[in-house]
Write a structure and sequence with these properties.
Blueprint lengths: L4 H13 L4 E3 H6 L4 H10 L2 E5 L2 E4 L8 H9 L10 E2 L1 H7 L10 E5 L11 E5 L7 E4 L2 E4 L1 H9 L5 H14 L4 H5 L5 H21 L1
Parallel strand pairs: 5-6
Antiparallel strand pairs: 1-3, 2-3, 4-5, 7-8
Length: 207
């Protein structure tokens, strides 16, 4: 039975809508677009060719984090699943914590990840649990708590860490107890303790 083109288009729009307008050839095939039809839409300009097996709907509005969506698709495995999670300095910027302005994109991957990081990207290796990750529009990012814990163990300056912790505590998206009770290396624990104390002093002055 021949599929309804409108239903096929609607199904693809639904997938792309969750991914910032991007989709893979495999996803298009799964909703009914043959490879011949995919070539047709690419050649007509309906679909923008981004990379091998990756397209973007031409008329889909551009978002604020197009680069992070593309990095996520770059990290996908053979099953099309994202392997990288936006983290560290980049995640601080996403959550609007502190004044970090990362010059490169920070991503966390598992120890089994085999792709080499190209220029403009820093890969961190760690095991992330589901509660460490939030899904944003087209990419995954570490939660504010996990992001601060990662930042405490990174080369991020103490001043920038203080500012990020202060913003998170002030907005109530993490609690001081969560930061101070986390199992981290001693130096990272010390840095977080300092940031919490600085935040408490600032709040006393503000009061």
């Amino acid at each position: 039975m021949k599929s309804d083109p409108r239903e096929t288009e609607r199904a693809l729009m639904e997938i792309a809508g969750e991914q910032g307008g991007y989709f893979t050839a495999a996803q298009a095939l799964s909703v009914g677009y043959t490879y011949r039809q995919q070539n047709y839409h690419k050649n007509r300009g309906n679909w923008l060719y981004i990379d091998h097996g990756l397209y973007r709907l031409r008329n889909y509005p551009e978002g604020e984090h197009e680069d992070l969506i593309r990095w996520s698709f770059w990290s996908r495995n053979r099953c099309g699943e994202f392997q990288a999670t936006v983290s560290h300095d980049t995640a601080l910027a996403i959550h609007d914590l502190g004044d970090v302005m990362p010059g490169r994109v920070h991503l966390t991957v598992s120890s089994g990840f085999r792709k080499k990081a190209p220029g403009g990207c820093i890969l961190h290796t760690a095991g992330l649990d589901s509660y460490d990750i939030e899904h944003h529009h087209g990419f995954n990012v570490t939660t504010p708590l996990r992001t601060l814990l990662d930042a405490a163990g990174s080369p991020l300056s103490q001043d920038l860490l203080d500012g990020a912790v202060r913003d998170a505590l002030r907005r109530g998206i993490v609690r001081a107890k969560q930061l101070l009770s986390a199992e981290l290396p001693k130096e990272a624990q010390k840095r977080l303790r300092t940031s919490v104390e600085v935040s408490e002093r600032v709040e006393i002055v503000r009061a």
